[in-house]
Amino acid sequence: LKNLTLVSYGGPDIGMLCAAGKVKKLVFAFVSLDLIPLDPHFRAARQAGGLETCEIDEGMFQWGLRAAMLRLPFLPTRAGLATDVQTLNPELKTVRSPYDDGEVLLAMPALKLDAALVHVDYADECGNGQIIGPDPYFDDLFCGAATRSYVSCERIVKTEEFAELGCMHTLHLNRTRTHGVIETPFG
Description:
By secondary structure, the protein is of the alpha/beta class.
């Protein structure tokens, strides 16, 4: 890996890659270690000016991934308006609604990804993925926004076993957006 542009929800992956000096640009909504409010490696890299950043809010982040997943150049949103997001990111543009309301909205650009790496509880060999916990973290959006997506899981199961492992509404990843699956017991 050379210096890369990283789009991440904001976990320890960012800190590890910053500590290794691999991040050139970071697009993020937040960076924390859950109970620890700010990853120390990310903080050090940012304070040292070691990486270019695009800090957006979670609504914008989600809309950028959705735009990429839908293969659109942008999606209009109210998220980020009347905040410093546009001051921090002057490349962001606004659009006017073509309808009678004429509302001005932020044009959140698509966050196109070359690759997505996600982890689920269970997956089948086809790439369907099941997340049992309460928060799927946007993993489905990451996979949809990426040219290639790879899923690690605690256990590879037969497709028919998904119903036995939990409710079918926990089946978050669809095989049509997965290019590879690997079992990694214990994370």
